[in-house]
Amino acid sequence: SKVIHLTDGYVWIKSNYYNSLKDGIKLDLITLNHDWIILKNKNVKIDILKRDWEKTKILWVDWTFYNDYSLKTTNVLSQGISTDINWENTFNYQPKQWGEYELIATYVWEDKKVFKSSTIVYVEGENNVNWRNDNNTVTEVLSEKSVLKLWDTAKFYVKSPVNNWKILLVVEKDDWIIDY
């Protein structure tokens, strides 16, 4: 078998997940080809998107209104940079607001084929983060498995703008708490 590469190289980006508004976001990137050989002086486009969760009320089948959240992204920066002769570059961005940001590095080869690399980071501010704290909150929980059998184990992921935290998960049905 043979791996088919769409471009002559790849771009990788790295940034700390947790950043401060005072220090800004530091983004490191490198460009290599598919044989891990250095690609010098390559042009890369950096896009930084601000991610905001917007709350809306939705009427569900039980005729009760619940909160739902949708993701709104705003492009706050789009800039071209070039890797140096050492195939790397460091880019600093000073955000104006705290919150969640998506960093995207795009590398375009001569034949217009595109390779993108991205990561999501969080910028802390001076305010507390109040996140979905209504009494009828519905939070999306994702499972690594779509079907579980008796005695199976699975990891569950809670969609959240917070990286490290403690959670109390309550399983309820018909106004009864089944497990916690």
What does this 3D model show about the protein?
With about 180 residues, this protein is mainly beta. It contains no helices and 12 strands. About 5% of the residues have low confidence. The chain has a 5-stranded mixed β-sheet, with no helix packed on it. The radius of gyration is 21 Å and the shape is extended. Helix content is about 0%, strand content about 50%.
Topology:
Elements: E1 10-14, E2 18-20, E3 25-32, E4 43-59, E5 65-82, E6 88-93, E7 99-108, E8 114-124, E9 141-143, E10 156-158, E11 171-173, E12 176-179
Parallel strand pairs: 2-8
Antiparallel strand pairs: 1-3, 3-6, 4-5, 4-7, 7-8, 9-10, 11-12
Average pLDDT, all residues: 78
Largest sheet report: 5 strands, mixed
Count of alpha/pi helices: 0
- What's the gyration radius in Å? 21 Å
General shape: extended
| Portion in strands | over 45%
Summarize the structure.
The chain is mostly beta strands. The protein contains no helices and 12 strands. The chain has a 5-stranded mixed sheet with strand order 2-8-7-4-5, with no helix packed on it.
Throw out a few tags for this protein.
180 residues, mainly beta, 5-stranded mixed sheet, 3-stranded antiparallel sheet
